[in-house]
Amino acid sequence: MSSGENHPSPGDDDARKHIGSALHMGPHKKVTSSNPLVLHGRHFGQTVFALCNYPALLTAGILRLEELQDSPIEDYPADDRREHKVFVELVDSYPGLLDRLINGEEEDIIHVGELLGKGASGARGDDTKTLKSAVLEWLLPRGQAVVPPLSQNIKSDRGFNHEITGALLCPTGLDWSNAETKQGLKSGETAVRGDQWPMFLYAGYGFKHVFTSPSSVDKEPKATCSGNAYLHGMRSMTKGSLAYIATQVRFLLSSSSVFSRTNTITDSENFYHSILDLLEDPDESEEVVDLMTWWTRRVFPNSSSLQRNISKNSVLSKIREKHAALRELVAASIT
C-alpha cells in the first residue's frame, strides 16, 4: 500500500462508508470466471460467511490491521470484531492473500474483493436454483403428495399461501393451527422478522444437496468430483454452512421470488445473522459443539473428524487388547 495509507485518516472512514458495511451483501454480479479467487469465494461464502460485501471487508480489514498496532481488537464494537474475525478467516484460508493485499494498491484490493464476491454470489444463486425444486421433495415423507400441488418454478403459491409451507415457516412463538394467526401471516398483517425462527427442520437434506452432491440426499453421501465438500476438503459441519443452508431453505419455502438484502418480508440477512449470533455465543458453546457433531455425523458419516466406535472383534481391537495386556505385565513386574 502507498505511504499515505500507512495511517488511518478521515478519508479512510469516508472510503469505508462509501463501500458500505462489509458483513452485508453487496451488489449482485453474475459469475462467468473460473479464477481461483472466484472459486474460493464460492466455498468461503457457503461455509464461513455468505452475505458479505467483500471489497468493503478487505478494505476495512487492511486498515484495521494498522489500527490494531495501537489498540486491541477487544476495544472495538461487537460488529467490528465479527467483521475482523471473518477477514482473518478469509486471508488465512487463501495462501498469499494477505501479502497481496498489504502490498497492493486500493484498486487491487477492490478487484480481489470483487472476484471473491462474484464467487460467493454465484454459489448462492446456483444453490438457490438447484434447491428451488428439490426442496419440494422434502416437504412430506416419500410417497405422499402435496395437496394442493406446488409449482417447481413459480414460488407465489409457497410461503404462508400454502398449508404445508406455511406451517414450516410459522414462527415458533405462533400457532399455525389458529385461523386468526394463519390469516394474519398470509395477509402480511402479522410481520415476521428474521430473528423469529420458523418451525421447519430438514435432517441434512439441504446440506447434502449443496455440499456432497444432489444424489446423496437419498443415500449415503459419496466423495465424488461433483461434491463441493470433496473438492475443498470439507469433512465436517461449520457454523457458517449451517446458517447458509438454513437461510437458503427458509427463502425457498417462502413466496418471495428474488433473494434480496432489501426484502423486508423475508428479512434473510437478519435471519442469517441471528443464527450466527447464537452459534458464536460463548454461553452456548457446549450445546453448539454437540449440534455441530450431530450434523457432521448426519451429513458426513464417513468423516475422519468423527470418533469411530471400534468393533470388539476387529483386528485393531485385538491388537490394542494385546498391547494393553503387555503394558499391565510390565507395570506388574516393575512393582
Distance between the termini: 67 Å
Give the low-confidence spans. Answer: 1-12, 14-19, 28-32, 212-216, 220-226
Biggest sheet, in brief? none
Average pLDDT level: 80
Specify the structural class. mainly alpha
Taken in chain order, the helices and strands follow as HHHHHHHHHHHHHH
The helicity comes to 40-55%
Shape: globular
- Which percent band covers the strand fraction? under 5%
The count of DSSP E runs of length 2 or more, i.e. the number of strands, is 0
Count of DSSP helices? 14
Description:
With 335 residues, the protein is mostly helical. The chain is built from 14 helices and no strands. It is globular, with a radius of gyration of 24 Å.
Based on the model shown, name its key terms.
mainly alpha, disordered N terminus, 0% strand, single chain, 335 residues
